[in-house]
TrEMBL record:
Protein name: Uncharacterized protein
Residues passing through the membrane, by range: 12-29, 41-59, 71-89
Tagged with keyword Transmembrane helix: yes
Keywords, in A-Z order: Membrane, Transmembrane, Transmembrane helix
Organism: Actinokineospora auranticolor
Length: 136
């Protein structure tokens, strides 16, 4: 792996951390007229949608650097680790994760599509391994 590829992969991992923190901080947004339009103060976990779009993209970009499932899953693993750190110990002892359905939605919306993408990388590497060995 070249130095440029390592730098790009490090950037993907750093972006995973930044996105996890961003998604956690903006998870409690409400449609109450302060930041988002006023629609009766309903909870609106837009960051779960953001996670569902960005994490598979990050995994796909990592897979283009090296098509190995453990390597391609790096952004997902870093994102989950960041969530775990904030779950166990927030900054200054504060609790960042909220105890309701939005936290579960964020984790599921981020992890599920990214895991499917890692599975696609695994399938491609397995298919490539069979053709190299003269598999059927």
């Amino acid at each position: 792996m070249t130095t440029g590829e390592r730098a790009r992969y490090g950037g993907l991992l750093a972006l995973s951390v930044v996105l996890a923190v961003f998604e956690l901080f903006f998870l409690p947004l409400r449609l109450d007229g302060r930041v988002l339009p006023d629609v009766g103060a309903i909870e609106f976990p837009i960051t779960a949608l953001l996670a569902a779009v960005t994490l598979p993209w990050l995994v796909g970009r990592a897979a283009k650097i090296k098509a190995k499932p453990s390597f391609a899953g790096g952004p997902l693993y870093v994102w989950l680790a960041t969530l775990l750190v904030f779950l166990v110990a927030g900054p200054g002892g504060d609790v960042i994760l909220i105890d309701d359905w939005r936290t579960l939605l964020l984790m599921a919306a981020g992890a599920f599509p990214a895991t499917i993408k890692v599975g696609g990388v695994l399938a491609k590497s397995a298919a490539g391994g069979d053709s190299e060995r003269g598999g059927h």
